[in-house]
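Hi support team,

I'm opening this ticket because the web form for multi-chain structure prediction keeps timing out on my end. I have pasted the exact lines I submitted so you can reproduce it. The total is 631 residues across two entries, so I didn't expect it to be a heavy job. Is there a limit I'm missing, or should I split the entries? Thanks in advance, R.K.
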Amino acid sequence: MPEDTPIAVTGLNHWFGIGEARKQAIYDVNLQVKRGSLTVLVGPSGSGKTTVLTLMGCLRDLQDGSVRLLGHELKGADRALNEALRRRLGFIFQAHNLHGSLTALQNVLMGLQVHGLTDRKTQEAAARHALSLVGLADRMDYLPGNLSGGQKQRVAVARAFVGNPEVIFADEPTAALDSESGMIVVKMLKKLGQLRGTTTVMVTHDNRILEMADRIVTLEDGRIVRDTAPFDPLSSAKPAP
Amino acid sequence: MSRLLQWLFGRLPIGWLQLTHSRTRFAAALSGVAFANVLVFVQLGIMNSMATATLKPYGFFQADIMISASDANSMTEGGNVARQWLFQALADPEVTGGTGLYVANVSWARPTKTLSLTTYGIDPTLPEFLSSAMASKTGTLQLQNAGILDMFSRGLAREEAAAIRPQTPTSFEVSGTTLTLYDTFQGGGGFGGDGFMMVSDQTFLTLFPARRSAAPDHILLQIAPGADPEAVAARLRDLISDKTLRIRSYAQAAAEDLSYQQTRRPTGIIFGFGVIIGILVGIVIVYQVLSTDVADHLSEYATFKAMGYPQRFFLGIVFEEALILAILGFIPGFIVANGLLVGMKKATTLPLAMTADMAGMVFVGTLIACTISGAIATRRLAAADPADLF
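Hello R.K., no limit was hit. The queue was backed up. Here is the completed structure from your submission:
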């Protein structure tokens, strides 16, 4: 059911390179993510976490296997479907990727304008509210060049959730943040799951986050080697559903 | 400006914000577009002035048909035409009159500069072959060795020209003959000479003793009211025995002269190339600016792609930038070119001017050139891959 399982990955394989340089990066990954949950992908560098994240987020074409995202099969999806699905998602990048020519407020507005809304006042009010939630009410008109790394990442977080996405994909969202800011961001994502049912899939090396995760999926060499729910004593020893 | 564009586009004016983010680069880009505009404006101004200067002498006369020698590509070039063809042409029932037109250059050696005057010899007893402004001044031409001078001749001070009146004529020597100027008319320096002068056919033959009255440079004909000059010219081509002659309507002769000046004479071709080079320079400059801008913002564009923005959004940004560069680059280009044309007109007395047609044409051309540059630059957008962001 797409309502309960916004992401369903089945038999996912992926290769990089061509010819003799072709190398398999993902091996038979199967994963179902529950609505409103905070799922964390962990593993050593090169284990395939980010590749799985981009495949689930329809940022990369599927080669083998199946990913159903919000009820739509991504294998063979055309550009229009990909774009339509992406508008229902939120992305937080490690490098924040804010637009350097836009103020914090304008960057957040970009997360709303993609939906084609034309009521500028309502959009601005929503963007201002989102920035207030991440503690940047006094930095709205600052260009990214005048913000600290942590402040930039908080703007990126506000941009990701301001459009009320159904799923948020985050790649090391707390890497540039101090521990307090990092916890604020993760708590916010967690709260979004509880209040709005927003599903979050996050790649991280930050151990502080693990204790807040609903589920921890560990990848090694392109395979899922562990799948646990930390606060569910019954599921900690076996793969989560 | 940002608010205005946001209202116009219904979205954040990303192109404007990107361009103005680096003010130095933006200023350099606008200077580049303005420079290309100035190039095109100046070349077009010179081409237009060539057209004006070429057609100017045709305005001195009133005729419907012109008979010229086969090699007469312009009013001042080519061999002579036997006067006998004038009489043969008069046999056509719709030809009401004709006259010979003599053309040569006269040098007026002055203390500071020798003026080269394109001189027309006309029959002063037939003022109906002259423009109304000119016809009123032909009285003095009936005097022996008399002339009237172009008041805008290059190298002739305005006060000096204004002083040439029937009561205060001025004289100079031409090949041992004293020529007296009794009046002036409005002409203007061209590319072939410093100005114009009108004399009677008799005076002309005195100044140029080698020329014969039986062999003018052109024959001008007038036809009955309502008659079609093209049809009469076609009949005359059949009627007149010499089939090598160019027998054309007066308007067609002027148009062919202009075409010859612009497309077959080196000056015209050079100025035409100047316009093309200006346009190419503009396209290259705008392309460089836009493609660099796209390359600099690939990660931002990839981010927007990841957020679900469609391809047309990115094309919109690039074209927004192209149009901003076109419009804002045009304004200083127009102002500088206008100043240059005014300065060049003063220095050369050529009929150089910024016309509304020219401004409109260059503005539309700038928009098109910038759009072409933008279209080429959008090819770089394909490199923005959201998967590369992770």
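A quick check on our side: The mean pLDDT of chain B is 89. Let us know if the file doesn't open in your viewer.
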